[in-house]
Amino acid sequence: MMRSSAASRRTVMKGMGAGALALGGLGFGIGSARADLAKAEKLLKELIGSKTPQEGKVRLEMPQIAENGQTVPLTAAVDSPMTPDNYCKVIHIIAEGNPEAGVCSFKFTPLSGRAEFSTRMRLAQTQNVWAVAEMSDGSVWMTKTEVKVTIGGCGG
User: Fold this and answer.
1) CA distances from residue 29 to 26, 98, 102 in whole angstroms, order as listed
2) Contact at 8 Å (CB) between 144 and 133?
3) Rounded CA separation 141/156 (Å)
4) Contact by Cβ (8 Å): 93, 144
5) How far apart are CA 7 and CA 155, in angstroms?
6) pTM attached to this predicted model
7) DSSP summary character for residue 1
8) What is the pLDDT of residues 52-76, one digit of tens each?
């Protein structure tokens, strides 16, 4: 009796494996949820409107190679006097190859003293990470850096 129940479990498990392979072949895999450059650019437009970002003022420090995409350190800073008349209002971090391109946004006031933060993020794959700063005078500044990821941190 035990022999037949073991055989039926084995048959069920084989069937489940075949079903999982069939679903993967239909495009239900992880790769179908990836963001891309067009999505990142769309998000940037939603955040800053029709303004054109300029290069400079923003510094983004990340490792060139992330051995594990689960926890990648980053530091972002903006060269700003942080006075009531001239300060950084917000820094956005965008990862163009993650399932969701928008990573985080940090808001600042003149009372912040410095427009700088450090945190960790997940990266799904090798990609560009953008730091975009909106200033109190309406200008927008940005920088990009490529991070090579050896083991993806977003399920990849």
Assistant:
1) 8, 15, 21
2) no
3) 31
4) no
5) 33
6) 0.76
7) -
8) 999 999 999 999 999 999 999 999 9
